[in-house]
Specification:
Elements lengths: L1 H4 L7 H4 L3 H29 L4 H12 L5 H8 L4 H30 L10 H30 L1 H37 L1 H28 L4 H12 L3 H12 L4 H30 L5
Length: 288
C-alpha cells in the first residue's frame, strides 16, 4: 500500500476540497462505500453462509475493507480519472482508520450476535488497522511531503514515483503468493467452503460495480468519474481484511480462509469489468 499512497497529492487536498463538485463526488462515494456496499456484503454473507459463522465473518471483513491500492490500477486500466481516484484513496484511508473497528463490531458482534471468546474485539481490530494501514499511510505522507520540500515536485514525480511504482505490484504478488502458500492446504481440503465463499463475492463485485456505474451515469457524471466511483465501490482492501482476520482469529481459521479467497475472485472479476466498462463506454458514446 505504501507506494500507492505516495502518489496521493496530500499537499493539494485543501485546495481540492474547496470545490463544490468534489464534495458531491465524495458524498456519493461515502454513501456507496460506507453504507450500501458493506450492508450489501452483510446481506450476501447471511444469504449464502447462514450456517458457517467463520466464513461469514471473514466475508463481512472483506466487505468493510474499502480498497486503497488495486483500485488505482483498475482505474488506470479502464482510463478512469486517476487524480480523483487518488483523492478517494486518501479519504478512504482516513475513514478506514476511524470506521473499520466500530463497523466490524456492529456487523459481527451486534447484528451477528457473535459473543464467543474467539470473537473479534475492538482493541484487536483497531490495533491491526493502525499497524497495517496507519503506518503505511503515515510513512507515505511523511515521504511525499519531506521529499517534495527537499527535492521539489518535478523531481519527485520524475524519479521517486517511477522507482516506487513497481513495488506496489511486486508487493501485491508477494502477498498473494505467501497467502496461498500458507492457506494452500486449507483451500485444497475445503474446496466446498471456497466455492461457497466465491459465490457471494462474484455477486457482490458484479452488482455493486454495475449499480454504481449506472447510477453515476444517470446522475450525469462523466465517464472518468463514474468509472472511478464504480471501481472504488467494487474493490476491497483484502490485505487489511486478511491481516485483521489472522490477528483476531488465527491463520488457520475459517475467517482467514474466507478473506484469502477474496483476491482469488476479485482480480479476475475486476479485470473482466475493466474490459466491460471500456466496451460499454464505446458502445454508448460515453468516453471522455
Amino acid at each position: 500500500m505504501y507506494p500507492i499512497l505516495c502518489k496521493v497529492q496530500y499537499e493539494k487536498l485543501h485546495d481540492v476540497f474547496r470545490t463544490r463538485e468534489i464534495w458531491i463526488q465524495l458524498g456519493f462515494s461515502v454513501i456507496i462505500n460506507w453504507v450500501i456496499a458493506p450492508f450489501f456484503m452483510l446481506a450476501l454473507s447471511w444469504a449464502f453462509l447462514p450456517d458457517k459463522e467463520g466464513l461469514r465473518n471473514g466475508l463481512i471483513l472483506v466487505g468493510i475493507a474499502r480498497c486503497i491500492a488495486m483500485v488505482l490500477i483498475w482505474t488506470s486500466l479502464a482510463r478512469g480519472d486517476g487524480d480523483y481516484c487518488a483523492i478517494l484513496v486518501a479519504v478512504n484511508s482516513f475513514l478506514q482508520i476511524v470506521l473499520f473497528a466500530p463497523v466490524a463490531l456492529l456487523f459481527i458482534r451486534v447484528i451477528g450476535q457473535d459473543n464467543s471468546i474467539s470473537s473479534i474485539s475492538y482493541s484487536t481490530v483497531a490495533s491491526a488497522v493502525g499497524v497495517f494501514l496507519g503506518i503505511p499511510l503515515g510513512a507515505a505522507i511523511l515521504t511525499r511531503l519531506s521529499l517534495i520540500y527537499t527535492i521539489g515536485t518535478k523531481i519527485y514525480n520524475a524519479r521517486v514515483i517511477p522507482f516506487l511504482a513497481p513495488w506496489s505490484l511486486i508487493g501485491l504478488l508477494y502477498t498473494i503468493i505467501v497467502l496461498f502458500a500458507s492457506q494452500g492446504s486449507q483451500v485444497v481440503h475445503q474446496i466446498v467452503s471456497v466455492v461457497r465463499v466465491a459465490a457471494p463475492l462474484v455477486v457482490y463485485f458484479s452488482v455493486i460495480f454495475s449499480a454504481t456505474l449506472l447510477v453515476a451515469r444517470k446522475l450525469g457524471f462523466r465517464y472518468g468519474l463514474a468509472c472511478t466511483q464504480a471501481f472504488t465501490a467494487a474493490s476491497n482492501n483484502f490485505e487489511l481484511a486478511i491481516a485483521i482476520a489472522v490477528a483476531a482469529y488465527g491463520p488457520d481459521s475459517d475467517e482467514a480462509l474466507a478473506t484469502t479467497v477474496g483476491p482469488l475472485i476479485e482480480v479476475p472479476v475486476l479485470l473482466g469489468l475493466v474490459y466491460f466498462v471500456k466496451w460499454f463506454a464505446r458502445r454508448y458514446g460515453w468516453e471522455d
